[in-house]
Q: What sequence folds into this?
């Protein structure tokens, strides 16, 4: 009857890791997780810059030609950091509002 309500919240993450054999897979492929995390961060940053670039064309940011370009895409620097701060605030609020839904 203890599992009738499901796995307790504080054990769900570790339980899924164990069921998915995460520690074993990380030992088999050292460094892969870190590499994938870095790729994900880079893709997220590029997507954020692209989103802000599109917003600039809607008139909500200065014209794109005022930003330096990296690989042909305007790099939005401080504007991207500002957007990131807003995004972080929203994500923190979502976790506070819906604490059981990670």
A:
């Amino acid at each position: 009857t203890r599992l009738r309500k499901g796995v307790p919240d504080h054990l769900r993450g570790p339980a899924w890791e164990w069921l998915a054999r995460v520690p074993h897979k990380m030992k088999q492929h050292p460094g892969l997780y870190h590499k994938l995390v870095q790729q994900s961060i880079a893709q997220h940053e590029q997507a954020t810059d692209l989103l802000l670039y599109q917003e600039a064309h809607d008139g909500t940011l200065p014209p794109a030609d005022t930003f330096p370009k990296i690989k042909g895409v305007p790099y939005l620097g401080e504007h991207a950091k500002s957007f990131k701060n807003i995004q972080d605030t929203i994500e923190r609020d979502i976790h506070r509002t819906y604490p059981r839904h990670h």
User: Anything to note?
Assistant: DSSP finds four helices and two strands in the chain. The mean pLDDT is 73. The longest strand covers residues 69-70. The first helix runs from residue 9 to 19.
